């Protein structure tokens, strides 16, 4: 009866369902709905003036500013979110933060993600990746999966074009003192990860490795000499503060914390046991800013991720700085998600007592980009493992 009455009744106002509950919309649409309502529109203008004040905290303490916030919390703007890669993503994010900076005052260690939740699973990407490559990425332990990922990308016109674009941009020397344009490099990287499907980009970023040549290729995926490394490492909290002055960087960092923050209430250490959300937010953080994370070395026995920063010179903020840095370097959710992708599974199948690693000779040469037509898997180092396994079998 209730359903029939709702169907027979008058249409619901925009932004509400038949029962009067607010329907979550993207922030661009929510802004349009607010602009069509005089009370909402005027309070939104008031809040923007409050946030633009020189002494922001004093302005927000103003009764008129507080009243504007209270009204807007009942508007579609309060619940709005943004879609990753949407046409007006930056505009959407600017609208989101114009509301939520007034609510949080921007002083939280962790901020909620402005993006819609990720509901897909890694298994969807594995299925597509196996179709494109003609094989399951976890079946052949002898192959160089990072080289295979590069070859798979080259078979797709869009992936090949955008990958070649950022490699060329990030490797182009400008002068003797400036070997590349970091700004252009970051922009080209962001276009690649935003426009190429994840079944290609994930395989390049998170390919599993058995030897150092493969791991070095994985580390060089984003051409770190230009996009990642710099002459000196800034303080991590300074880097975070700089990131938070940009709506896009702030949003991608908040999304990373939302989806990759270690959760000890889950089997996988990830919020909601959702590896896909964590890997997606990590890839989104390679968004064209200095916050870009990367593998710190070409180790095959451990995975360590970090932005290019340190906690040197933190003073009395050292504990907070170390906590921020550990969210990258000692993050079990992120590490398990990367290993799960390399193993071709949605679950955490890392053995509790892994076998001793094979000791490899140090790799001396470092090239910005490894050629895709050379099999650099160093299979000679796998001989002892194969012999041992065969004798045991």
TrEMBL record:
Q: Which InterPro entries match?
A: GDNF/GAS1 (IPR016017), GDNF_alpha (IPR037193), GDNF_rcpt (IPR003438), GDNF_rcpt_a2 (IPR003504)
Q: Name one GO cellular component term.
A: external side of plasma membrane
Segments of this protein annotated with the region Disordered: 344-377
Provide the GO MF annotations for this entry.
glial cell-derived neurotrophic factor receptor activity
Name the principal localization, coarsely classed. membrane
Membrane disposition? Lipid-anchor; GPI-anchor
SUPFAM superfamilies hit by this protein: GDNF receptor-like (SSF110035)
- Which domain of life does the protein's organism represent? Eukaryota
- What this protein is called in its record is GDNF family receptor alpha-2
The species is Baryphthengus martii
Gene that this sequence comes from: Gfra2
């Amino acid at each position: 009866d209730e359903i029939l009455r709702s169907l027979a009744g008058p249409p619901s106002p925009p932004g509400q369902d038949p029962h009067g509950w607010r329907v979550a919309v993207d922030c661009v649409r929510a802004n349009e709905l607010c602009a069509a309502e005089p009370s909402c529109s005027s309070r939104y203008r008031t809040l923007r003036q409050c946030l633009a004040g020189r002494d922001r905290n004093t302005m927000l303490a103003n009764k008129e500013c507080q009243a504007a916030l209270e009204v807007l919390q009942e508007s579609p703007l309060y619940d709005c979110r943004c879609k990753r890669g949407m046409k007006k993503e930056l505009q959407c994010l600017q609208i989101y933060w114009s509301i939520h900076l007034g609510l949080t005052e921007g002083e939280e260690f962790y901020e909620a993600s402005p993006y819609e939740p990720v509901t897909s699973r890694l298994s969807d990407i594995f299925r597509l990746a196996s179709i494109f490559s003609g094989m399951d990425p976890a079946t052949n332990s002898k192959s160089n999966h990072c080289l295979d990922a590069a070859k798979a990308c080259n078979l797709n016109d869009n992936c090949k074009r955008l990958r070649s674009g950022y490699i060329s941009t990030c490797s182009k020397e400008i002068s003797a003192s400036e070997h590349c344009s970091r700004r252009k490099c970051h922009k080209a990287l962001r276009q690649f990860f935003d426009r190429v499907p994840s079944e290609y980009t994930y395989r390049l970023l998170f390919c599993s490795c058995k030897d150092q040549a493969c791991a070095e290729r994985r580390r060089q995926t984003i051409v770190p000499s230009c996009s990642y490394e710099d002459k000196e490492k800034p303080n991590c909290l300074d880097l975070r503060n700089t990131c938070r002055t940009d709506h896009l960087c702030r949003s991608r960092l908040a999304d990373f914390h939302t989806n990759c923050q270690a959760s000890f209430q889950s089997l996988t250490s990830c919020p909601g046991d959702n590896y896909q959300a964590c890997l997606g937010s990590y890839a989104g953080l390679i968004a064209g800013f200095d916050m870009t994370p990367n593998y710190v070395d070409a180790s095959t026995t451990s995975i360590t991720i970090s932005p290019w920063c340190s906690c040197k010179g933190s003073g009395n903020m050292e504990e907070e700085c170390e906590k921020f840095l550990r969210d990258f370097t000692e993050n079990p959710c992120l590490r398990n998600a990367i290993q799960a992708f390399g193993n071709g599974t949605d679950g955490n199948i890392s053995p509790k007592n892994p076998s001793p690693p094979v000791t490899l000779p140090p790799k001396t040469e470092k090239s910005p980009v490894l050629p895709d037509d050379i099999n650099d898997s160093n299979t000679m180092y796998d001989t002892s493992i194969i012999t041992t396994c065969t004798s045991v079998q």
